C-alpha cells in the first residue's frame, strides 16, 4: 500500500530557487512565443491552436480542453485562422455531425516557420551535453507526471 507523500511546511532554499528559475524560463518562453506569433500576424492563442492542429485535426471541444478555454473562444480563433487560409473545417469521418478543425498546408508552413523562429530554449540547450539534456528532460517529465 502506497503511503501519501508529505510536503514539508517550508520549502528549502534550493527548491525555492528552482521554482523561481522555472518561472523565469516559462516567462521568457511565453514572451518569445508571443513575439514569434506576432511576426506572423498571429496572437499567441492563434499560434498555439495552429500548432495543435498541425499534430492532428481536432473537434472544437477538444481544442478548448487543450487550450483551457471556452469552446466559444475556440470558434472565434478558428474563424480568424480559417479566413486567412491557415485552418479549415471538415466533417469528422467517425461522426459526420462533428466538425474537425485542421491545419491547411499553408497553416502547417506558418506553424513550422513559427517553431523555427523560437530560439530561446534551442540555443541554450545546444550548449548542454546529450547526457545533460536527457537528465533535464527526464526531470521535467517526472515533475509533470507527479500531478
From TrEMBL:
InterPro entries: HTH_MarR-typ, MarR/SlyA-like, Tscrpt_reg_MarR-type_CS, WH-like_DNA-bd_sf, WH_DNA-bd_sf. It comes from Streptomyces toyocaensis. The keyword DNA-binding applies. PANTHER family: MARR FAMILY REGULATORY PROTEIN, TRANSCRIPTIONAL REGULATOR, MARR FAMILY. Residues 15-145 form the HTH marR-type domain. GO terms for biological process: response to stress. This is MarR family transcriptional regulator. Keywords: DNA-binding, Transcription, Transcription regulation. GO terms for molecular function: DNA binding; DNA-binding transcription factor activity. The keyword DNA-binding applies.
Amino acid at each position: 500500500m502506497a503511503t501519501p507523500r508529505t510536503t514539508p511546511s517550508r520549502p528549502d532554499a534550493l527548491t525555492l530557487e528552482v521554482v523561481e528559475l522555472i518561472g523565469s524560463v516559462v516567462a521568457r518562453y511565453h514572451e518569445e512565443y508571443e513575439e514569434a506569433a506576432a511576426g506572423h500576424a498571429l496572437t499567441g492563442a492563434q499560434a498555439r491552436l495552429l500548432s495543435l492542429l498541425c499534430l492532428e485535426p481536432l473537434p472544437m471541444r477538444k481544442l478548448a480542453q487543450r487550450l483551457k478555454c471556452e469552446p466559444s473562444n475556440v470558434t472565434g480563433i478558428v474563424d480568424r485562422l480559417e479566413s486567412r487560409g491557415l485552418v479549415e473545417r471538415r466533417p469528422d469521418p467517425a461522426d459526420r455531425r462533428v466538425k474537425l478543425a485542421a491545419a491547411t498546408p499553408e497553416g502547417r508552413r506558418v506553424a513550422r516557420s513559427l517553431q523555427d523562429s523560437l530560439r530561446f530554449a534551442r540555443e541554450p540547450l545546444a550548449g548542454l551535453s546529450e547526457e545533460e539534456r536527457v537528465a533535464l528532460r527526464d526531470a521535467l517529465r517526472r515533475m509533470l507526471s507527479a500531478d
